[in-house]
Fold these 2 entries.
Entry 1:
Amino acid sequence: MGHSKQVRILLLNEMEKLERTLFRLEQGFELQFRLGPTLQGKAVTVHTNYPFPGETFNREKFRSLEWENPLEREDDSDKYCKLNLQQAGSFQYYFLQGTEKSGGGYIVVDPVLRVGADNQVLPLDCVTLQTFLAKCLGPFDEWESRLRVAKESGYNMIHFTPLQALGESRSCYSLADQLELNPDFSRPNKKCTWHDVGQLVEKLKKEWNILCITDVVYNHTAANSRWIQEHPESAYNLVNSPHLKPAWVLDRALWHLSCDVAGGRYREKGVPALIENDHQMNCIRKIIWEEVFPKIQLWEFFQVDVDKAVEQFRGLLTQGSRKTTTKPDPQQHLKILQDPEYRRRGCTVDMNIALATFVPHDSGPAAIDECCGWFRRRIEDLNSEKHQLVNYHQEQAVNCVLGNVFYERLAGHGPKLGPVTRKYPLVTRYFTFPFEDTTLAEEEPLLHLPHRACFLMAHNGWVMGDDPLRNFAEPGSDVYLRRELICWGDSVKLRYGNGPEDCPYLWAHMKKYTEITATYFQGVRLDNCHSTPLHVAEYMLDAARKLQPNLYVVAELFTGSEDLDNVFVTRLGISSLIREAMSAYNSHEEGRLVYRYGGEPVGSFVQPCLRPLVPAIAHALFMDITHDNECPIVHRSAYDALPSSTIVSMACCASGSTKGYDELVPHQISVVSEERLYTKWNPGASPSDTGDVGLQSGIIAARRAVNRLHQELGAGGFSQVYVDQVDEDIVAVTRHSPSSHQSVVAVSRTAFRNPKTSFYSKEVPQMCIPGKIEEVVLEARTIERNTKPYKKDENSINGIPDITVEIREHIQLYESKIVKQAGVTTKGPNEYIQEIEFENLSPGSVIVFRVSLDPHAQVAVGILRNHLTQFSPHFRSGSLVVDNADPVLKVPFASIAARLTLAELNQVLYRCESEEREDGGGCYNVPNWSSLKYAGLQGLMSVLAEIRPKNDLGHPFCDNLRSGDWMIDYVSGRLIARSGAIAEVGKWLQAMFFYLKQIPRYLIPCYFDAILIGAYTTLLDAAWKQMSSFVRDGSTFVKHLALGSVQMCGVGKFASLPLLSPALRDVPCRLNEVTREKEQCCASLAAGLPHFSSGIFRCWGRDTFIALRGLLLIPGRYVEARNIILAFAGTLRHGLIPNLLGEGTHARYNCRDAVWWWLQCIQDYCRLVPNGLDILQCPVSRMYPTDDSAPLPAGTVDQPLCEVIQEAMQRHAQGVQFRERNAGPQIDRHMKDEGFNITAGVDEETGFVYGGNRFNCGTWMDKMGESERARNRGIPATPRDGSAVEIVGLSKSAVRWLLELSRKNIFPYREVTVKRHGRTVTVSYDEWNRKIQDNFERLFYVSEDPSDANEKNPHLVHKRGIYKDSHGASSPWCDYQLRPNFTIAMVVAPELFTAEKAWKALEMAEKKLLGPLGMKTLDPDDMVYCGVYDNALDNDNYNLAKGFNYHQGPEWLWPVGYFLRAKLYFSKLMGPEANAKTVFLVKNVLSRHYVHLERSPWKGLPELTNEDGQYCPFSCETQAWSIATILETLYDL
């Protein structure tokens, strides 16, 4: 918990292409790539172009990252490769699987901006930017006095429009020369240079703490740029882009039409020079259709010359060059091939297709004529199709032309250009024409003269709703022909091609331009970014970042989609996207934008330092108005300038404005036509001054205050935001600091409508502000003053003089003129609420409060944070040390946690509803939601893990915490009610919660989570510390699986296990609360939660011993393992271990396999535990010394374990036969009478253990039919009588082991003695062992050879090359079913198997049985297979009703462990390649279990899934043996 380095984890998943996903990171972060479940176990390499430390970035140069596996462990859950991010920009990564590219994306690392002489950091959220049109700054020596206005207004960044020499139109964005400074900045006697500009920028940075950025314009250059005439190849001209020729012809025709209209030649036809109404518009439409289009015949550019084509075709036919050998491709039809030079009727068709399509009957002239006739008609049809297509384009062109005319001349919001003239033509020209005008007919031949056509260049512009990733001037786009371009007639679009080699001069020129910019400025704004080819912008920004590594890049995108925005942001590494408040149509929407563009909700959860990398939205530069947009005073009112700028300023992102907004300039300052200069700073300026401004001008004084506030909030970490729409005009924005819990609340009353002409209510609603108002930071009202009204000045850009702000800063609440009165109410014992009543919150007013928690709560938060620092350094800020804390808080929580045993941790962390009920409690129920899965901390943590990353503060769980202390008291009270170390944990929590209850309710979820996370992670560490080194040093996956041991192994109120011998040492005891006497309290294993967790259904012999190695021995819980082995040994009866334990007294001896699993566990215990063989001499208290004795108290008859083992072996060799006690419905309400007869024995010939009959089921596949309706009641679905394969394997393992021990004289018996035919016969373990070995493959292997003599039932064989599921079943076909049980025998007795045969059988199991999480319990090709288990379904289907198919298809998890372990074992024998492939398989399969374990609220693995891994609602959510066998697999790995 202790580290505070920020680490983000990016999970890689197969085929996941994240090019449109934005991942934002900061310098100093570590980025880790980890393998998602689809890639674990596979050979994956991650490549990135993020450079090695100290190397310069090269976009094309990728390197592969080294994998780090900190523990060199068994699985891939912790394997990662990392980048330490120290460089700003956009970086790409992709990953390969082998040599195949499998996915990738981009990461964007933010720049670090620095200002001042001491280079202090300026966080991006502190930026306050102001835009200046460079041409309005005047001569360079006057700049400082004009820029000082920005400094005095509190801005810390200035954005200059381009400083370059401007083109003819004088638009700020039409540049005549990208390398030359605008000559307007020089005086006749003093030339201004780039160096001078650079010195000023440096001065602003060092002395004024202001950074400067400027535009880069890559898309176009001024039409009169000298260099474009010298290098026409840099533009889209009619030589390099002949596809534009038809559009050029149309453009010239429209120009001539425009000149004719201007000259009055169309007055008779209803079109005068001054167009004023719809009738005249319709006349223009008619003229274009009837005169322009027929004259220019654009369709000819797309058509074939019919006569010429027919003649060519005839020639080919008569020459007989038609090759009859080539068969025509039926897919290929005759189509027009476009003439690449776009000459009229210059298109062609493919003559080979024509010859193959039109075939004459014979070679006679008549047949050839007929054939040419067909061909002619086909060509005429094709030409006609092209004519139709052009007609469709022309319709769009006419609509666009008229739309343009309407906007420019008729529309109310348009520029109303007046009469058509040569200066203001009917429509803007799309192409340059640097020659004398003649007639269209004389001009057209220029098309085909390259030395002339290269100067006919396309203008730039923008296309409404176009795909920004498509270049509209390239071939394939008809934008120019369809007149869809909104054209900038002063600029030529630049043609870069695919790379520098396509247009070397242009790339070099623009690169130099970029380098000049990056040399002198700290950032750039990408002008017209969405139309700039991405590869061009990438190349240029790479050049800029070489000179200015922390380049601040901003852009405004008009893509209309966040998805597309992200393409630009990720590829170019854009630092901030410009967003505009003017886009909001009302105050509600303006408030929504504040919430959208920054910050997290107030009271958000504390996120861990190490966490997944989540997609972000682009960082915003939120501007009240941008320089190329309409003036808000026109659209709203002058009174809205102050409230809207305050709302924007309160956003948790960068903010900005445009010069002129603060001075209340009542019109748009045009980037094209404005030639006046900005005002200068003069502290003493009077309102009527037009050339100077001071603090009393416009809203400048208030702007200074809100800019300073914006910077203070950004720097002070006020990262939480709440927006409250108080009424239709009033927006309250809260910024909250999650460490100090101070808030700043800005209440703004907007004035979207002019208060002079619109009604605003005098009644303003009361406001409730939680906490204690420390001061009024600012109150400001927009007011009128008595000065001359506004008159537009000729030389200076002046604002409205008669409106200003009345402002007061840092005053007490009682001094406020806006607040009428403030009452204090308390809500609950520890929540201050101040009720504010306003009296002068007129439209155009703002009031900003600084609010802190009430002092009592502030102290409580400080104390909480102080105690939380033991878990994370994050809480140091705002923490408070006090002496009088509860003594329990004076010790570190880790030392309290260290005193808990693992059995006690089971109570603190887990316990499901039924376990808790035994103690008289239950799990906490969250109203309007559901109960927690566990009563312990895991129950809460599972919910919080879902809520925390999403900050889902509206979840019912959080509602419950905010509404009252019930959950808080439940958590601590439940533990305090227990005794000892558990109660200590409860007391610690109670002491922490004492302070938690004193803080405002909205903060409780966040701090409750922080307390629990700290305690929970400490408790988990305490658990792992008590486990084996395999777990302690294991991977995250291993550790989390090992917690299954804590989850399943516990002590209830009532003993689940029979009592152990009093002679045994180290048996855990406790004081009985009722009798006050000492009693044993051994931990027992639950079979599964929630169904098998309490009462007599908790402990099952088979489940316990299948799970014991994985859940107790491997985690190092040796004493608990020993106690369970010995407790079950005490219940041995008839040579069997009970299935349902029932505390021994209610045991059922109806399973044939539990005794063999028990013996396997004793063997594992002896192998894994230091001095493990000692267990053989441990005393076992026999509950039933004879089969018929009544249950005896512990200690009455004790025997060493080795004798009990021998008894089990002896009884099997002799043969076991009995009828279950109390046979009948009282112990099994479905079983048929014969089912209660239990048999087991050992076959004399083969040594195989056998048993059972067709009415009972003595193995783990133990489903008994329950449906009367389907007539399966009392019939086992899977009796598996005879010799079940896994029992044969387990007994072989036991016999072999006992043989080894007896040879070493550790086990005192070498044989079993049996009575046969009245004689006593001895069978040695050696002989028994050999019999099984010699007969196993002979009788269990289904040979691939159909004529194999060993096969007694060839007609029953369904699959070959497998091992049978049983031998000698009463239904012989059951022996031949493919099930996963043979893999168990492979693990416990691999010596029975031939490696090659085993390997093939495993491959078959993998192909047929392996599912996502479990193993199919039956071959899907089997006729009774059904993979969906539904225990509630009762119908007529014999195979399904009442869950009869429990083991006939559903995918059980625990056999997967045995399958994988078998596969690992035999893969080593099959060679290195097979082994490597198997390790991949194992890791890949296990990764799915890891994902399930992480996502499951139960933090476990289920009993089973339905087919293909689908969730099964009837399964236990977490099952002991499922977790155990997966942990065993990792142990083997």
Entry 2:
Amino acid sequence: MAKNKEPRPTYAISVVGLSGTEKEKGNCGVGKSCLCNRYVHPSADCYYSEHTSVLSTIDFGGRVVNNDHFLYWGEVLNRGDDGLECRIQVIEQTEFIDDQTFLPHRSTNLQPYTKRAANTKLQSAEKLMYICTDQLGLEQDFDQKQMPDGKLNIDGFLLCIDVSKGCNRKFEDQMKFVQSLHSQISKTKKPIIIAATKCDECVEQYLREVQTFVTGKKNLMLVETSARTSVNVELCFNALIQQMDKTRGKPKIISYLEAYKSQRQLVASVSDKFEKLIIQTVRDYHTSWKIVSNKLKSHPDYEEYINIEGTKKARNTLSKHIEQLRQEHIKRRREEYLTSLPKILNKLLNNLEEIETLSWTEAQSLMKSRPEFQYYFIELEQTPWYETDHLDKTDDRRVPFDILKTMEGERIYQNHVQHLISEKRRLEMKEKFKKTLERVHFISPGQPWEEVMCFVMEDEAYKYITESDCRDVYSRHQQEIVERAKEEFQEMLFEHAELFYDLDLNATPSCDKMSEIHAVLNEEPRYRALQKLATDRESLLLKHIGFVYHPTKETCLSGTACIDLKVEQVLANRLVQLDHGRSNIYYNSANIDKVNLCLVGREGLAQELANEIRAQSTDDEYTLDGKIYELDLLPVDVNSGMLLNHSWISTFKPHGFFCIFSSIESLNYIGDRVSRIRAEIAQSKRDRYSQPVPFILILANQRDSVCKNMPILRHQGQQLANKLQCTFVDIPSGTFPRKFNESQIKQALRAVLEGLKHNFDMMCPMPSIKDLSESDLRIVMCAMCGDPFSVDLILSPFLDSHCCSAGQPGQCNTLILDKIIGDSRRRIQVTVLSYHSSIGIRKDELVHGYILAYSAKRKSSMAMLRAFLAEVQDVIPVQLVAITDSQADFFENDAIKELMTEGEHIATEITAKFTALYSLSQYHRQTEVFTPFFNEVLEKKSNIESSFMFDNSRDGTGTGEDVFTQSPHRHSPAYQYYPDSEDDGEGPPPYSPIGDDVQLLPNPSERKYRIDLEGNEYPVHSTPVGDHERNHKVPPPVKPKPNVPPKPNVKKLDPNLLRTIEAGMKTSRWTRGPMMGHGDDLEASDNYAEPADTLLKSKGFSDDIYAVPEDAHSRSGRVRNSFGGLALHGDEENGFDSMSKSQGGRRPSKYKHRSKILFSKTKAYHRRVHSDVSDDESGPAMQKKKKGRGNRGSEEDPLLSPVDAWKGGIDNPAITSDPEQDDKKTKKKKQPKTKEPKKTKSIKTTKPLYPPTRRNWDSNYFGVPLQNLVTPDRPIPLFIEKCVDYIERTGLTTEGLYRVNGNKTDQDNIQKQFDQDHSIDLIVMDVAVNAVAGALKAFFADLPDPLIPYSLHPELVEAAKIVDHYERLQVLKEIVRKFPPVNYEVFKYVTTHLNRVSQHSKTTLMTADNLSICFWPTLMRPDFENKDTLSTTKLNQSVIESFIQQCQYFFYGGEITEPSSAKGTPPPHGHGLESLLALQLPPPLQPQQIQHPLPPEPLI
């Protein structure tokens, strides 16, 4: 063995074993080549299991074999366990057989194999390394490495013995050969290792014989190997290396089984890692091996598996995984299809009767016939579906039709049929169970299922359906009976209309009134039916009460069935269509109208005339008589078939026809066409509002020469014009040789305009804008919301008339009738309203007559009529209208008969008219049905107006409210209904503003100037009415002036005298007689409401006269008596003596005193609550007590206040000569002045707040969150700063600041101007301070969230209940610190401003108490529909008052300020819970506290 001292020694190993011809070795070798291959190239991809020894002469002579009987396998770098490295050169000694002779090839060494294999020195020049059999002849395609130096010295031998079975040889022969070979190589004294090959196919006997052979030899080792499974291959070479290099450690020889087990574990681990890697990496079954190998080639798990198992197995593993992915995808898609199939069958085959007897094949054919089949299924040309590209179309959710042909598809179909059968049965049983529940009459609304279950457990349907179905059916049944009970409860409340509608609008029921309501309703079964839903019942009752006293169409309990909404919709559609059918020439707001003209002529005459008119026009605008008309011309040839097709008429809508002729022939054509055109127009315009279209006959001139037949044409043209009753336009004399002259065109256009005006006036005369406000009669038609009849039925008598037109802009519920009443044409204004809207105008508006409609099918409708009619003045004519389906209802339905009879009896008692409208009859839908009523109203008109003036003059005593006045001959403007509140978030103020809510149309004879209190003239401006300025409050009444001659010389009065008069009027606030105010000497603007205190402040009163507002419960509208001059105080008879006489010697009463039915209904509830008052108390003695008390300045119902021993009950009309006056005495009481000088605060009636909807323009500033308007440098919004700065500069001496509302138009203008330019100067704008104050409040009302967050309201209320003054302020201070930073800064700023305003209360009369009343709803915006809010009204107000009074303490670290009075303003804690009730009014004054009113001071 050669000794090599290099760091890496090199050893040459010769692998020997049985070789030779097939006769000698059998048909396969002993595994020498495979063993060398596995050792030199261990990678699985480099291992070749087939190595042949039969070669051609060429291959044998090639450089790889090189004519030698040995192969050079190459060199291996070996690293032992001890870390030593060496190079191992592997030589295989074999015997190559000629493929021709099958004898060994001849080589240079002719020794036999046993001797040749034992050679230790080998030599072969330029011999190449052997890789595989395919390399032979293709050496250039493989790696070419030469045997080093062309020679090798063998250092050891590896003797291979095949222990497997087969190969067509005997093992004994192999062992003989091995013994011979061993004896030869042992002579070389080189180390020898016996390698038992092919142990994976080992024969135990053979192996034992080899072991015996090895055992018998000295220093001979046996290693059991398998090249195919790569077991112990490296071990046998390492064992030989150790024997060659004794410095290495001796390797441990492991048996084949142990080594095979370890190898299998390694392969399993590597395979598992590789499979996991494939699963993680490959998710799409379309992925190829090339993509995966490139992606994983650097991954260690991939490399290890490829090295051990090879690429082929790796690809097989990937293929299996991809197939698995594909099968999973197919399975998933199949499951999706099968899952969706029941739903599809439920849509296509949902009729059980249709498919119950069909087979699955027949059902498939039926599905194909459905139009939706293509939407749910797809029929593929190839099957099965998973072998087509449809498998990959995941977006296509359609089911392959061949799935239906599978067993699963048929099974799903059968299940579907069974499901339909069971579902049908289940629904039948549920419905049967529902009917069972309906038969159980003791089930009450709100009753839980557990209480009912025991009564239905034996029911067949109950046993069949599930528990959840039972609960579902019962829940549905409960929902039905609850809804029905609530509807019946609501209907019951309507039926008790007299119980609720005996109070004025915006009133608040007292505790006694609420007790009375509950006492009356408790007798009703429909009230007790909701006993288990007491909370819902109370909520419905409070909602009903809130609506009764604060009605709006938005909060109408009938919802979309509100009469106001329906009437608006019908009138908007019908009247708009009516107006569109008429000419709009006289509606122009600018100086331009549009006229559509159709030009008819023959042989191009129409087009020539059109060209001539356009030549004389400017941009299709033609000037005529100082007006500009926009002309739309449509030239049509007389022979055109379009003239005989009426469709173009409705499209073009011609206002007139110009018919041009220039010959007898064309004239004849014109005559024939005009008649036919008129017939077509009449046919197309069957609308009764259509008007005749003017036709103008125009004679065209002859350009070439003077026509000799011109006189004949003139004569014939004039005759045809007379026959057709149209205008003939001749050629003017001295004309130029042109076909048409300018004068002809103007004459023809004038004729069209005059014809339109004449026709329009004949059908429905259109007055001037000034005349639109003048109505001879004002009629109000009332109907109840939710009545079972169409609104068209009650409107049809008006809308079906030729003389009906729309009211003024903004009056959505008003229409105008022009009818001949009596001996002349009269203009009748009819306002159609719901009863809840009509209540607001019953006393505040001049109404000449009421048409009261009710449904004869509904008791509540009659009850509402009675409640409304009871309070109507008996001088106003009334028409009762019963509505039902047909006359047969009266005889067939007792309930209808009863209600119709009751209506007729009421009409008989009050001498009213009664009629019926039938929805199934057309006869009564005529205006004439109301003509007798209109005649009666006209006859009583003067008495009605006198009574209205008299009644409102008495009501207005001592109020001095400013309203618009009109002459009785001029009449009041049309009533305007205000659906939405557009105030600044508060309820209606004590003194309702007039502002822009009412449009004043002054008489032409009235002065254009008014006189202020300084004696200066100023112009009067009227502001148009806009829809956005309407609100839910009833506008102030428009009172007619009494016929009092005007005082002379009142245009200029001495200012000092006026102030003296005003002071005298203030001191006479308790005088009974009517107070005459200035005629034209009003305030500076009619757009402002004037507080009563400005004229009625008593000298003996303190400055804080606003603590108890005079008109807290009075109507919003009052009359300022304007008689054209100054009238001093006088007795009531002096002021209205003539008026009283004009009424037939009696004062007006109410209809409830003229009808036993009405009186019994209205008084029945009153007696119940006052049953504790004896008959003696209600007699003259009680009346005497009331006389000594003095009258209160506000009108209030006896039910509003608690009953005390000194306070009288309801007067009995049977013992009074004038029931109306006694009713007035009961309701009108004057507030006496208390002896104690201490300030007392009244609990003001709260008004409902509505979301801010006052703006009608888009704004980027108003109505946006507060945080969007501030910055760290400017924590206060600029608009607030400007308003506060302006108010503190100019308004701290303004009386009623923040209480008296300013002009709404000015408020809007301020905000609009600020929207456009944030740098506006309010002082330069010169606006009223009240308008700025209103704009400031509107800013807070428009915020999305109130300034004081809702989340802190409960804490503020609880804090307000704290009795101790200092503890309450401390808690409030802690709460205010919880405000959001932005809200805190703004609230601090506003509160500081209000504190400064309260410091000027001597001039503004606005104390912290009054300011808190005005501001707390704006800052907190509570929900007044919530009964909890109603109970905390006073507490919220007291909280704001505390913040204003103690501003320094809360925000600036100051000390607590002592209240101005001895007791301050403690919270309204009172005694018990009664003091917290929002429905309680101020307690009545005791008799000893009443003082007689001070006598008026004499005028100086």
